User: What shape does this take?
Amino acid sequence: MTQFLSDEVYGQLSPSLPNDEFYMTLALDEASKGRLTTRPNPCVGCVIVKDDVIIGKGFHPKAGYPHAEVFATNHVKEQGIDITGASVYVTLEPCSHTGRTPPCVDMLIKERVGRVVIACADPNPQVAGQGIIKLLNAGIMVTLGVREKRARALNAGFLKAMATGLPYVRLKMGISLDGRIAMSSGESKWITGQMARTDVQYLRAISGAIITGSSTIIADNPKLNVRLADVDLPIGKTAIPQPNIVVLDRSHRLDTDDDYVVFQNSDGLIWRDDLVSLLKTLVAEYQCYDVLVEAGATLTTAFLEQGLIDELVVYQAPCLLGATARPMFLGQIDRLSDKLDFTLTNVERLGDDIKLVFVKRHDKLSTTQS
Ligand code: AOF
Ligand code: ZN
Assistant: This one.
């Protein structure tokens, strides 16, 4: 149940039909095509069906461009097909507000579609159920919650930020079999292989901000940028936006005028306050809803101990680095009952390495796929 929808609205929703999951899966596939380019907007896909035939599909490619429903509707019209009475499958509640683009619900009502099937409601305070209510008031049938878990996983950051004011935080670690991240000298290039490092590029690409520590900057002078080719979209070749780089520097070791690569990038930012206020600021002032922590053990441990990590992404290499190498986690835990627990949600082989994805144990239901 979505909190901002009243029982009265729930009472007016129509039950799901046998083919809904199938069409919504296609709409989710559409949505995924915008995964690297839509932020800070969510990725949204739409499939339009009439008499059990797909007559249009589309997705939101980038903030400032039309929404998924508009692309799909235009696709129908380009073919000269009458959209009246059609079923519209959309992965996020159609918007009811004027943002950079006009409200999708007004367009769907004007086009006299017959039914709208939605995977998940939009917690954006400017929408928050108003899209559903407007459709119902116009006499359009609405079904909610089809493939909701997968839709939620696709927009984990946007949905969490809109609902709580905090971003979805992923922590990335490259470790050895014995859980080490670097030698005692700090040497760490490269524990994991090329495929794992390319995968990290995708993690960066979906992140509005990357958080690291001053020690990492001083020791490695990393670029922390996205080095992936432009994406081929219906709006033309589109560059993946670069994440903001945030350097945690509580002991005042750095200045943005310093000659490090991350500060040559104008989005480099130094932060000296606490972690929770950083996360809130990233959402409120920078519209960073997905955040990636790529740091050494001290900062990694601080994030873990403060319970600020939603998802742990571990790349594990088939090597042992020994007891003098640096461990991934520096927390002092005396009793087994105090251990930090996670739930494994995905395992993938990347060359000789394994990628393991974990979520906080109580978050399991909101991020695993249905
Ligand atoms: C939809 N379909 O494809 C997307 C939606 O500034 P705008 O006009 O692009 O509005 C952005 C907001 O619209 C965004 O925060 C989210 O609430 C919603 N996104 N809605 O009906 C779409 N991308
Ligand atoms: Zn819209």
Q: What stands out?
A: The first helix runs from residue 7 to 12. The CA atoms of residues 8 and 320 lie 59 Å apart. Residues 165-360 form a domain with the Dihydrofolate Reductase, subunit A fold (CATH 3.40.430.10). Residues 363-370 have pLDDT under 50 and may be disordered.
